[in-house]
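This part of the workshop introduces the protein records we will be handling. As an example, a complete record with its sequence and its structure tokens follows.
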Amino acid sequence: MKLLFISFLIFLADQFSKLYVKGFNFPLFDFSHAGLPQSRSIPLIHNFFYITPVENPGIAFGLDFGPQFKLIISIFTILATLGLFVYFVKIKRHNFNHRFAVALILGGAFGNLTDRIFYGMLYGYGSLLSGSVVDFLDLRLFTFFLLNKTFGIYVFNLADVAITIGVSLLIFSLIKDRKTKLKELSEAESTIV
């Protein structure tokens, strides 16, 4: 369960970065931050890495099925995140790499889930469970032009980075575990023969 701290750190870093990009207001402390202008790219490394604040109302890679599916997407995300948490608790005896990978995914999932649940209400554009995910990291490794439109890598956030790294590590861990088990099984069969 110590790895839940990693999930929590990812969640905090994700939310702080999104609040910085989106803006916030703390009237109790008379403190506010306007945020960054939406859909305006700020170059950090020219022709390669930009900060481009956008809101993703849909799911992965900016897929948007329309406002009528927003509640369904939010409920599905809640259920998937809860399922992931239950899985994390069940694998407490698995190897470190496996648990670390799931902790990364869990931290990212909670970060994006927070946007979906609260940001619509917090920023006044919707109700509870109607928020959009704040994306801002715009890595332009490659682009191509098709049908008068430029395509490239989508804009993402820190939660997406954690999820992507976590899924990659999980796949690697599962493949490694399978190879180890197959090797042990093969060695056990050879000693029987």
About this structure: DSSP finds four helices and seven strands in the chain.
